[in-house]
Write a structure and sequence with these properties.
Spore Coat Polysaccharide Biosynthesis Protein SpsA, Chain A, 10 helices, disordered C terminus, binds uridine-5'-diphosphate, binds magnesium ion
């Protein structure tokens, strides 16, 4: 008898595609159960991320007609990361392993078999990595290319072309629930864990219906959260910049003051003033870097803040509303 698998599916305004996705996912789940690869109490957890297009009603109807499905609803739209976190939180109660997959099924669900095989071989994390981005827009492809080139320079190790299609064992789920933070992209958090891991590759399809929920600015915000959440390099760069400016200003001012640099008398006082300004700016930038260094340490403590939102479920017994309050520090 296989292990209990939960497929966690975040949904934000996915009414156009939900039923089709449910049918494909349920069909896949049943096939896996029939092949004895997973336990018969495996489930699909749809997490409605505060949709306004009736997605939750569709999820409720799906859950009424199928014993394989379960619904979780966030009261407001909090973003894919929080939707995933809530899905994992619920899965953690019963599942042995979880696979997170987008509702639009751009990720090939046929590689789930391979993911489970790699899990059975002892891997706690199996990353779904798309081998080609041909179906993505040129803007997205170029952005992703540059982003993944910058990440190693910032000491961030992420699998190139891996998004949120991933298998995780119970141990990983528990770590995410215990230590994951709402604003930190789960893919980065997972990549910092030292569990055995493997990769399966597939080619990503175009969205069948509806449109992407990621605007240019939400992609920028995701990239920014990855950088400030997992790299102290920007603060180190500020410190280095401060030192360079201070040294440059002092050196320039000293050379001019001592007469080693020949500058016309009419420009001498201006250049000297410029050097003093440079050195002063350098000290200020350096001090900002020092403050930033302390902040990065405090950040690690404050990361626990989940914000406040309500969670509802399709399960009648646990349909009480859970209020997660800010627990900053
Ligand atoms: N999503 C979500 N909340 C959001 C934005 C997106 O739950 O605020 C879900 C969305 O419904 C989908 C997945 O996250 O299941 C990925 O979103 P999308 O397909 O728009 O991203 P893309 O594939 O274009 O990067
Ligand atoms: Mg998509």
């Amino acid at each position: 008898m296989g292990k209990i698998l939960y497929l966690v599916v975040p949904c934000y305004n996915e009414a156009a595609i939900l039923v089709a996705s449910w049918k494909k996912l349920e069909d896949k789940l049943k096939r896996l159960i029939n092949q004895d690869m997973i336990h018969q109490s495996s489930k699909i957890v749809f997490v409605d991320d505060g949709s306004q297009d009736g997605s939750w009603k569709i999820i409720q109807d799906i859950c009424l007609s199928s014993s394989y499905c379960f619904g979780v609803k966030l009261s407001t739209n909090r973003g894919q990361q929080i939707a995933l976190l809530e899905g994992i939180r619920y899965s953690c109660k019963n599942a042995d392993l979880v696979i997170t997959v987008d509702c639009d099924l751009q990720d090939d669900i046929e590689v789930i078999d391979e993911m489970i095989q790699k899990y059975q071989q002892g891997n706690d994390i199996v990353y779904g990595v798309h081998s080609c981005r041909k179906k993505d827009s040129i803007f997205k492809r170029m952005g992703a290319y540059c982003f993944y080139k910058i990440l190693p320079l910032l000491n961030i190790n992420l699998h190139e072309n891996h998004s949120e299609y991933r298998l995780m064992s119970r141990a990983v789920m528990e770590d995410i629930v215990r230590h994951g933070q709402n604003w930190l992209p789960i893919r980065c958090f997972v990549s910092t864990l030292s569990y055995p891991s493997a990769v399966v590759s597939y080619s990503r399809q175009a969205r069948q219906s509806g449109k992407t929920k990621y605007s240019f600015w939400s992609l920028m915000s995701l990239a920014w959260n990855i950088i400030i959440g997992f790299s102290v390099k920007p603060v180190e760069l500020i410190l280095i910049l401060g030192v360079i400016l201070t040294l440059g200003g002092c050196l320039g001012g000293g050379l001019i003051g001592l007469g080693f640099l020949k500058i016309g008398a009419e420009y001498r006082s201006y250049t000297l003033l410029g050097c003093i300004f440079l050195a002063t700016a350098g000290v200020v930038v350096f001090c900002l870097g020092v403050v930033g260094s302390y902040l990065t340490k405090i950040l690690e403590l404050v990361r626990k803040s989940p914000g406040s939102y309500e969670v509802d479920t399709t399960d009648k017994d646990s349909s009480r509303k859970v209020k997660l309050l800010n627990n900053i520090l």
